[in-house]
Amino acid sequence: MTFSPYADAAPIPTGVPGLDNILTGGYAANRAHLIEGRPGSGKTTLGMQFLIAGAQQGETCLYITLSESKRELLSVASRHGWSLEGIEIFELVPPELSLDPKQEQSLVYASELELGETVRMALAEIERVKPSRVVFDSLSEIRLLSQGSLRYRRQVLALKSYFLLNDATVLMLDDLTSEQDDLNLHSIGHAVIRLDQIVPIYGSERRRITVTKMRGTAFRGGYHDLIIQRGGLRVFPRLVAADHHAAFAFETVPSGIDELDNILGGGLSRGTSTLVVGPSGAGKSTLALGYLFAALERGEPALIISFDETIGILMQRAKGVGYDLGPYVETGRLRIEQIDPANVSPGEFAGRVQDAVEEDGARIVVIDSLTGYLNAMPEQPFIVLQMHELLTYLNQQGIVTILILAQHGMIGQMASPIDLTYLSDTVVLLRFFEANGRIRRALSVVKRRTGSHEDTIREFRIDGQGLRVGSPLEQFRGVLTGVPTFEGQRASLLEERETDNDGVR
User: Which pTM was predicted?
Assistant: First the structure.
């Protein structure tokens, strides 16, 4: 008789990072769980992680395979850096899949057996090993031998009853290879978990997981993104901002540039998001770096999510305007995440932000840019809802969030690829303008929920010593039309600063 180390139906850790959160603790002890998904979706890896977690705790674990050989399973484990020591592997495979006839193993030719005998052989192995954790891979072989849904259901019920009598926690894998998805097992399993794999038109495949049912337990519904990397599956639970609250002091965060802070009513407020919008090259990223660098100098950890630039170019550009980020990256105070838009899912993106906030203690987050974020999820219809959850989460954590959004076009009428102004607490608008035959930059604050702000338009300039903001441009027209023109006196504009000995302005 098998003795489970867990109380009946108590949650058992899954061994998959993030999945316990979705299942409210893990799989139910001494129950049979159905894991279904097309080939390549990650079922075998998920099952192996479950057994490895059990073996590390000294539990007896058994992997029954009807589709892959022991050699193939060991190869998969090796690629992930795992050891399957302590895990019994019982093969029920056709002879052509046995690559090494000399290796010591229990080999039964399932293709030559009747269904009842196949099931009896599996039960006999369970009786011999007396495992507390079992992975049965896969039910598609049982389905093929059954040649009928009624017989198939009866045999799976027999397996489930035996598992329950022997206090084993079981994952039954089903690769859905039948022409139509068979729902016969959904009523049998204590839980039904489905893995999906989606291949976009461009970029790497996207995988996700959803829990269809789990008896007697509240679980986190909906789709959750997952990735398969060296070390196994990692699940990114769908972000629900209402589940995350943290106490923080509501205060204003300065940039150290008095004129910039004045136009923003003293600076940016903790627990708010700021949208910096304007054409490419107007200085959006540099403006964000001003607040980020000031936070780093105060000793606050920070995060930059970069979609548009490599880390090297970002650091070089920042150093060119007086912000040397290198020492802060080396000490770990600054975390820079470079994201390839073609290889990231919404869940993974949100997961990286959460890690930086909850593990590294980041107090300021810069997302550069939302345009890259949109490109990363061209087939996601609920991009605004996802960003709403992320911003609400960051606000509730007391984070200063700066979002950068590049508008289409550089001069003339401009349009934004997405309207997030209603989600943002502060909106800063940057524009090019023409004066005395030169192109200059203008800055204005069009919205600030947490207090008053100036309604002036000021010149905004970037040089080797950082940022400068000039006096209000009182004789300025056309900024909201997209073709702003300055008709004042040249004396009211910012002049170039003197050059030092190194040629840096």
Answer: 0.83
